[in-house]
């Protein structure tokens, strides 16, 4: 058997040669003088040889350990060359097939068949909640406990930001993790989906339906909006929610081109099927919706047109160009000390008040852009009762202006 002194004394010759150690292990000395550990064996009576590594980088003791490992494989009727290749492939697979790399592959494959909003929402939650925990982890090694940690972290993050209790977001995060895992299964990257065990881990909180504002909130809300430290555009968007009965998404997506100052209307058009596919729906229901504008709303819109000349949006975000953020208005309510109120409550308040004033249910439902089974197509003609609804909305706006009294 060899020792280190003997190995160091081996010199290069005109031809490569090998010196045996034990049990098939030998040191190969090349004409360059470099030395390599080689293991010679027979598998299915066929002579084979594999390289363990260079000496002295690979020590004598390590080479002997590898030899014992290979002999153990042969005793199990396994070919060391084949098993070594499997190990290398597995290591390479772990490096190439991290959760992050597979999720990026998934997004790239499906982004053209989904809306931009679909793509951006997933990318945002990958970066915020998922990648910090499992982004660099081989997807084969992601387990149910990893997913549990992600969900718990998501809930903690949402609660710290005071944007809710976090359960709904956590359920959504589990869902997009599951999408990636299902993609990994069908592309033969993994066998099992670790998100399945977490299906019932987070309980969806009970839905809090919109409720009318209490009298104490009515008395202060306009003053708080006026004093709010955010942009004038955000203030005007909040006022619009009070005066117009529009949904938050309708306010956010409202464009200057929707406005007709001469007719004092804001007309939200329906969009094409292709636009719906791209997430560009203007209304909850894809119908043309005409909103008669009170004098208060006209003043708000005129101010917005002056403040934000470079944006296509009537109520752009903080940069004055792009669409108002999804959570901006609800966050503003929180910052004003009105975290118990949601934007949905504004519509409930207006609807309740107008019903109490005995306005036509059809007028109110049209203003809310509601269509139920009892409302005929004729009733939903987008210009229906426009004059009557204009008078109703002016009454509402004037009433709101006197809430503080």
Describe this structure in words.
The chain is of the alpha+beta class. It folds into three domains: 4-86, Double Stranded RNA Binding Domain (2-Layer Sandwich); 99-198, DNA polymerase, domain 1 (Orthogonal Bundle); 215-401, Intergrase catalytic core (hpI Integrase, Chain A), CATH 1.10.443.10. It has helices spanning 4-9, 60-75, 80-96, 99-110, 116-134, 144-160, 167-186, 215-227, 232-244, 248-253, 273-277, 295-307, 328-335, 343-356, 361-367, 386-401; strands at 17-22, 25-29, 35-43, 46-55, 259-260, 265-268, 289-292. The model is unreliable at 373-380 (pLDDT under 50).
Going by CATH, the homologous superfamily of the largest domain would be Intergrase catalytic core
Give the second-level CATH assignment, the architecture of the largest domain.
Orthogonal Bundle
Q: Under the CATH scheme, which class of the largest domain?
A: Mainly Alpha
Strand-residue proportion: 5-15%
Protein name: DUF4102 domain-containing protein
GO molecular function: DNA binding
Keywords: DNA integration, DNA recombination, DNA-binding
Family: Belongs to the 'phage' integrase family.
